[in-house]
């Protein structure tokens, strides 16, 4: 077969050239999305503050962390907090997918159900639960912090705000 023809002898069209990306337009678009994200955080600050206060409380973060070392099945309850945090974060820019690494960490650390044989593989079974919670909680902490501190999406980015932008793949 001729490499320039298809199976029926028709000429194969070359793939369309990629549309050139204007770097300045892309920067502006991402900055506008960052401002929308900040506006959404500011609008939901009371809800986000309350969620953060609850998940940082003794009976959530502290007790669950202890339960991990105590090898108690109660550490599995931490998944509910993680899921609630992720739901709140997703609601900030619902049209955007969350960062793939973050999403993978959350997938691997939620939806787990305790079984007795997990005691034989405790670290393998429960560390992903803690890791998912810590990532979700840290993103929530940053969103709340910068929701209080920033008036507008900055050009020079504090590291925590840059992490929140990565959560929505805006960096």
What descriptive keywords fit this protein?
single chain, 171 residues, mainly alpha, 7 helices, 61% helix
Walk me through the topology.
Elements: H1 23-43, H2 45-55, H3 58-70, H4 78-90, H5 100-108, H6 122-149, H7 159-167
Helix pairs in contact: 1-6, 2-4, 2-6, 4-6, 5-6, 6-7
Instruction: Give the count of helical stretches.
Output: 7
Strand residue percentage = under 5%
Shape: flat
Let me know the average pLDDT: 92
Largest sheet: none
Alpha-beta content class = mainly alpha
* Domain tally: 1
Radius of gyration over all CA atoms, rounded: 22 Å
Helix content: 55-70%
Note the gap between the termini. 46 Å
Query: Could you spell the SSE succession in H and E letters?
Result: HHHHHHH
> Could you tell me the number of beta strands?
0
Q: Spans with pLDDT under 50 lasting ≥5 residues?
A: none
Walk me through this protein's architecture.
With 171 residues, the chain is an all-alpha fold. The protein has one domain. Helix content is 61%, strand content 0%. It is built from seven helices and no strands. Helix 2 packs antiparallel against helix 4, helix 2 runs antiparallel to helix 6 and helix 5 packs across helix 6. The termini are far apart. The mean pLDDT is 92.
């Amino acid at each position: 077969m001729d490499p320039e023809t298809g199976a029926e002898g028709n000429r194969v069209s070359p793939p369309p050239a990629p549309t050139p990306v204007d770097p300045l337009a892309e920067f502006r678009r991402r900055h506008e999305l960052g401002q929308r994200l900040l506006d959404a955080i500011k609008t939901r600050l009371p809800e986000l503050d309350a969620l953060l206060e609850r998940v940082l409380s003794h009976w959530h973060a502290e007790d669950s962390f202890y339960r991990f070392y105590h090898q108690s099945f109660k550490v599995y309850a931490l998944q509910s907090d993680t899921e609630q945090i992720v739901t709140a974060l997703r609601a900030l820019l619902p049209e955007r997918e969350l960062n793939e690494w973050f999403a993978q960490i959350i997938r691997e650390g939620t939806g787990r159900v305790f079984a007795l044989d997990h005691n034989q593989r405790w670290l393998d079974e429960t560390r992903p639960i803690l890791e998912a919670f810590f990532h979700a909680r840290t993103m929530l902490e940053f969103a709340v912090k910068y929701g209080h501190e920033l008036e507008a999406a900055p050009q020079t980015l504090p590291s925590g705000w840059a992490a929140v932008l990565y959560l929505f793949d805006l960096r």
